[in-house]
Design brief:
single chain, 9 helices
């Protein structure tokens, strides 16, 4: 039986189709031998994790939670074991916030990813302090920014901002789908569904609206399950395309 989108996910169906089209473009636009960062790819770098001391009480609670669970560190260690880099990239959690702007960025000039405690803290406010509820979203944020770094370091195609954000989501999902339990992305989808709608109003952002991202993650997570257990569906086809393209695009960087 083919998957049918309900009213909450129908808007995201078009987003999944657009992502599938972008992935097909990605698959056909650049020869495989041009993927790696240099003609002779050398693994001379790693992702490194830093925590800058939080100042506010709320940020201190977020910093403590991130340090205590150590799952971000485990994820980064896993990436370093599997994907090669030609230079070091530092992932910094810091008491950083820009009003009206995303609080997680890939800073190419300084070869670092900066993530504000306030962003992770806002996740905790929406889903609660329970570790199993907020951790999947926190690690999705980290992997999304790692994807941006990989696009540049491994010379991925240069799309416009909105399409690059969509592809970063898809690469993060591809990697994490092999790393996490099956219900991981259902929690991510529920987070984007449950965020206060006011967060999207008047915000300057290159990201998709929350309702699109929620449906997209649900489609991919259901597609992963359908693909894994051989249940034909459009979402399973989407996940298969996603998996094949990213396996090819990252081929030279796999260890």
């Amino acid at each position: 039986m083919r998957h049918q989108f309900n009213s909450k996910t129908s808007l995201a169906a078009a987003t999944c189709r657009r992502c599938a089209a972008l992935l097909l473009l990605l698959s056909s636009s650049i020869p495989t031998q041009e993927i790696s960062a240099h003609p002779h790819f050398s693994d001379s770098g790693d992702f490194k994790l830093q925590f800058h001391s939080a100042v506010s009480r709320q940020d201190q609670q977020t910093e403590y939670a991130l340090r205590a669970e150590s799952t971000i560190e485990s994820l980064i260690n896993d990436v370093n074991k599997k994907i090669g880099l030609t230079r070091n990239v530092t992932i910094v959690f810091a008491p950083w916030e820009l009003p009206g702007r995303p609080n997680a960025v890939w800073d190419s000039d300084n070869s670092q990813i900066v993530i504000g405690y306030s962003l992770v803290g806002s996740v905790m406010e929406v889903v609660g302090m329970d570790f199993d509820s907020w951790n999947p979203i926190a690690e999705q944020i980290v992997m999304h920014e790692i994807a941006h770094a990989l696009f540049e370091i491994n010379r991925m195609p240069n799309f416009d901002d909105e399409n690059e954000e969509l592809l970063a989501d898809s690469l993060a999902f591809f990697y994490l789908s092999a790393y996490y339990p099956e219900d991981h992305f259902k929690k991510v989808a529920r987070y984007y569904e449950s965020r206060p709608r006011s967060e999207n109003l008047g915000r300057i952002s290159e990201h998709l609206p929350d309702e699109n991202r929620a449906g997209m993650y649900r489609c991919w997570s259901e597609g992963y399950l359908h693909w894994r257990y051989d249940h034909p569906s459009q979402c399973a086809d989407d996940f298969e395309n996603l998996r094949l393209v990213w396996e090819e695009r990252l081929h030279d960087a796999w260890k």
